[in-house]
Amino acid sequence: MTTTHTKTISPRQQVAPAGPEFSRIVLGLWRLGDWKMTPQQRVSFLEQALALGITTVDQADIYGNYLSETLLGEALALAPHLRRQLQFVSKCGIKLVSDQRPSHGIQHYDTSTAHIIASAEQSLRAMQIEQLDLLLIHRPDPLMHADDMAEAFRQLQASGKVKHFGVSNFTTAQFDLLNSRFPLVTNQIELSLLHMQPLLDGSLDQCQRLRIAPMIWSALGGGQLMLPANEQTEQGQRVSLALQRIAGELDVSPSVVALAWILKHPASPMVLTGSGRIAAVAEAVQATGVQLSREQWFALWSASAGKNVD
């Protein structure tokens, strides 16, 4: 059956019962420096994303060798009105060895109270904004002290520098630990047809139980799903064939189908884009308007798993 699609605008959704309202498609800017855009081109890119209903941007202190947030800040300085139209997400907790941070002797994690606060404040300066809508702990720290982290969250919230807090790449147990000290609104996790582990490890079940929407990174398998067949793994070849078949049934692209597969999950995931091409961003938004049948969804699951359900 062929479906005719009109222009789709990204819907908005409440991330958690007491959390922020974000666009369901989130503009991921970790490769902003690789796109070699001028400041004015960055402004145009943000405005085009807004026209598609994307109001939420995702950053991290370490992205682009600690420079991506600064590149975004340069664009916002040229177009200050964008600060009022966008919600800003950033992450902290990883210390990379970098010429931008020469004091880091070895790559490691730091989730101390002082570092979380200092990182959030540096992100605000770099992006030239006054408040983060959401701050995430980028990776679970084996030495993380939940009480110290919660203290950082309380201070940043009381000062008006950060509205909400969450985590990224946390296990369910790690999430529960920190959430017992301070309410978290999301877990940003990897999920794609090439990485289905969150369907099995309890991550998405926990999100449903707590009524929080996960944020999904690498939704297209880091671009592997779009590679030519001869460059793909056996799993990738199976999935690509299934994507192409269902894309033909729905009259959309295979990437739209791959994202619609994620968006169908009842945990109401938000999907991060990672492309500097507005056409690819528009396809991500289009996926919010595509409904896969259960049969189509499980056909893709089976292609990835290499077997039918038991």
UniProtKB/TrEMBL annotation:
It comes from the Bacteria. Residues 24-298 form the NADP-dependent oxidoreductase domain. InterPro entries: AKR_Detox_Biosynth (IPR050523), NAD(P)_OxRdtase_dom_sf (IPR036812), NADP_OxRdtase_dom (IPR023210). Gene3D superfamilies: NADP-dependent oxidoreductase domain. It holds the Pfam family Aldo_ket_red. This is Aldo/keto reductase.
